[in-house]
Specification:
Layout (H helix, E strand, L loop, with lengths): L4 H14 L3 H10 L1 H11 L7 E3 H10 L6 H13 L3 E4 L12 E4 L3 H9 L16 H4 L13
Antiparallel strand pairs: 1-3, 2-3
């Protein structure tokens, strides 16, 4: 039986996704506001770059008036490494993308974001209702669903 290259990529991606600490990632999303902003921005991405620089996220958030310090982005990137999403690489030179502080993804970042924010009751293309700034998402702001008491 011949296995095509695309099948190998799917098999490898499935293996990498199985190694994700999904529970830890979802808990991080739930309790850390910086992680929540970053994961929600990743979940709506159409592109899935293999690396994300601290500078690029800082610029994206700053453009909508949300100032997240670079040290906070670095802290979140280091935590992503603990959940087997990839590896944080500290930078050496500003300007050269290959030498900037960055996160190198082992799983496409859009998938990481979607996995983190997905809930059992999701109705928005397989994702939970985002809580991020509506100008980034192009959606209405998050409103929690009422809890049912028994």
């Amino acid at each position: 039986m011949e296995i095509s290259v695309s099948n190998i990529n799917v098999i490898n991606l499935n293996t990498v996704i199985l190694n994700l600490d999904v529970s830890g990632l979802r808990t991080f999303y739930k309790f850390d506001s910086t992680a929540r902003h970053i994961l929600e921005s990743l979940a709506i991405r159409q592109n899935n770059w293999k690396t994300t620089t601290v500078s690029s996220l800082y610029s994206i958030f700053r453009s909508i008036g949300l100032v997240i310090p670079r040290q906070e982005i670095i802290r979140v990137f280091k935590e992503f490494g603990k959940f087997n999403c990839g590896k944080f690489v500290p930078g050496k030179v500003a300007g050269d993308r290959s030498l900037q502080s960055r996160f190198v993804w082992s799983v496409p970042p859009g998938i990481v974001g979607k996995i983190a924010i997905w809930t059992r009751n999701a109705r928005l293309k397989g994702c939970a209702k985002p809580r991020m700034h509506p100008r980034i998402l192009g959606l209405k702001p998050y409103t929690p669903e009422p809890t049912q008491s028994h």
